[in-house]
Amino acid sequence: MITFGSDRYYLDLSKIDSIISGDKDLAAQIIEEKEITTNTLENGEVETKEVIRYSHKGKEVDGARFDLISRMIDVVVLDGSLEDETLGMARAFKEKPFGYRVAFNTLLSLGILVKL
Predict the structure, then answer these.
(1) Is the pTM of this model over 0.90?
(2) What is the per-residue pLDDT for 71?
C-alpha cells in the first residue's frame, strides 16, 4: 500500500502481468515440429516417415516493459521523503522529484497504481 497525502494506492498485480506479457496472439500459437525421415529399403524403394509434434507456446515476457515498470515501481515505493498531509496532494506532489512524478503518473495512467 502506498500512501500519498491523504490518498492510498495499491499495485494491481494482474494489470502488471497483462502489460509485461508478450503479444496475446503469439502466446496462443502452437509450436509445430516436423521431422521427416527417409529410409531406402532392400528392394530399392524409398520409405518416408513424417512425424509432427504439437505443443503450446509458453508465456512470454517483454523484457523492456518488465524492466521499465519494475524501476518505476521502485522509484515510487522506495521514496523515503516524508510529506506533510496538511499541504494537500497537489502541493505535496509538486515538491517530489521529477522522476518520482513521471513514475507515479505513468503507473497511474497504466492502471497499475490504483486509488482505494
Answers:
(1) no
(2) 92
